[in-house]
Amino acid sequence: MMMIFGIPGPLLFGQLLLGLINGAFYAMLSLGLAIIFGMLNIINFAHGALFMMGAFVAWMLLDSFGIGYFPSLILAPLIVGIFGVILERTIISRLYKLDHLYGLLLTFGLSLVIEGLFRNAYGSSGLPYRIPDILQGATDLGFMYMPNYRGWVVLVALVVCFSTWAIIEKTSLGATLRAATENAPLVQAFGVNVPRVVTLTYGAGVALAAFAGVLAAPIYSVNPNMGSNFINTVFAVVVIGGMGSILGSIVTGFGLGVVEGLTKVFYPQASATVVFLVMIIVLLTRPRGLFGRAA
Amino acid sequence: MRLSRRTLLTTAAALPTPGLFRHARAQSAPTLKIGCLTDMSGPYKDLAGPNAVAAVHQALEEYGVSGKGMAVEVLSADHLNKPDVGSTVARQWFDRDGVDLIVEVANSGVALAVAGVAKEKNKVYINSGAATSDLTGSACNANTIHWVYDTYMLAKSTGGAMVKNGGDSWFFITADYAFGKALQRDTTDFVTSAGGKVLGSVAYPFPGTSDFSSYLIQAQASGAKVLGIANAGADTINTIKQAKEFGIKLRLAGLLLFLTDIHSLGLDVAQGIVLTDSFYWDMNDRARAFSGRLSPKIGGAKPTMVQAGVYSSVLHYLKTASAMGVDKIKLDGAATVAEMKKIPTDDDCFGPGSIRADGRKLHPAYLWEVKKPAESKAPWDYYKLVATTPADQAFRPLDKGGCPLVRS
Questions:
Q1: Superfamily for B29-149+284-358?
Q2: Which residues on B lie below 8 Å from A264 (Cβ)?
Q3: With an 8 Å Cβ cutoff, are B205 and A22 in contact?
Q4: pTM, to two decimals
Q5: How far apart are the CA of A9 and the nearest CA of chain B, in angstroms?
């Protein structure tokens, strides 16, 4: 058997693949955060709670209305996105003129309230959500037994991440968005309703989190704490990638998933900390992040 | 501040009131204070949590404290699974609020901290939710009782049964803190002494891990026959779900599983898993009667062994309070625990039992198998009995734990 660093090769390949799967979630979540930070200058700490809401809405749609997984992939992000729009209009929009810290505190408080409400209503053990029949089962890759559903998650995440990147960087809609963040009064003078653009951007970022939540529902039990398990790592990803950098968050998300996966083989106790170690090193050497633009 | 006649009057009226109130209360029967310190928001909320507080109230109601001339007050708090938070609450309760007894404390790290505080303040601590057998071993003290189960009991019952059925090589996935380590250590002892081998283990960061796939693949690659799952609550649920997802061929030994975990997993995923609990709501007429009384108060759920333990332990404490007198029980925690060890225990949940010198409460341990979906006739009908370990063999022998109370 082939050995790499004293670890059997097949085991290492398996871990790399698993790292990519976790990285898919990091990428999708940090992408939403990067968009929101880039456009609104808000550090959205409620992102984990909104991710969790996506999973819960999918569960409720199934439990109360018999609506299955695939329609939920569209419906749950829509519903949670609308919730995000209401949050932005009623509360968050009041903070744009203040320091970042206020936005951080507000959204952190919001996430505590949302998670607390769900915990009270549904407990902390989590609720079961079945993998859809068509994605049941697993494929033997030779070095690893790969559940079909996880393969699906990686594919969908790649498609979603790169189409979001393309929309923002390559279309005229994206150009308007970017222009609105650079110089809002000028864009407004061209007849663009900038506050509405900002609101819809927040809604879209939130919908991305909810979408990731629906994807996560069959893997992790649908649990009020599922977002807070992810959110710290995801913030580290955003910082490492460069605050507000779309491509940075995608690449770093997948990359750190792999780094974490490898740590789980060599020294599992450190798997929760390794991401922050990388963050410290990056901040010391490249304070703007790997993909951040100079001011 | 400008002093007006009105502010002067209201201040004067407000000041002496609390003093008067305290004085009036002090003349009637002294109040016993019970604090239920538990996980109200984390992974152990469902197996203990608010329903454990409900179990305290159930015990008070059934014992009929008001009819016996006792006044009892119940406090509750969330330890957030952090030993520093837990010991701070315990100190405040003992020092400031005059709490006499702390019950529950699901989380071994927090439990060890609270046991230390109870000893320092000479109060009483009865643990139901935490598992580490160190509470009656190297960390035992004269103020602490360990009520429901411990890592040794789980290891002997589940681990022993697995090895007997051919599961002689193990791999552990372990939560990296006091509980997980104690559970792995105690199970390893049983596996190796029965001639089995431990081929490997991973200790993962707790809390905050939700993806176990990497560890499951490592377990698979180790070639072991049995996967020892040395964690609890939501972590165990995720481990079992993902083991099924990845088609892990190892036999799963759920070293600590609660009724609420099975409820969350669903029988579809959980069927066939073997586990050890010292209480199951449907195990006999008395248990059914108790669960029937408590169930409407906890939203129709059935109590876990932890919640049953909280009820049972509070009931025994109240009996002791009647025997000793409330005045005496408030004065000296160690004397109270000594008296509790003399009086035999008996209640609907655990039947007749006793408390040993090292603080270990004794009762039988039961090995259960989770039913197939077709076998389950009603909601919460999940377990069938596989084996019973009698009370005198279920726990670690008194002289093997290294408890200083026993040596002296």
A1: Response regulator (3.40.50.2300)
A2: 202, 204, 214-215, 218
A3: no
A4: 0.80
A5: 11
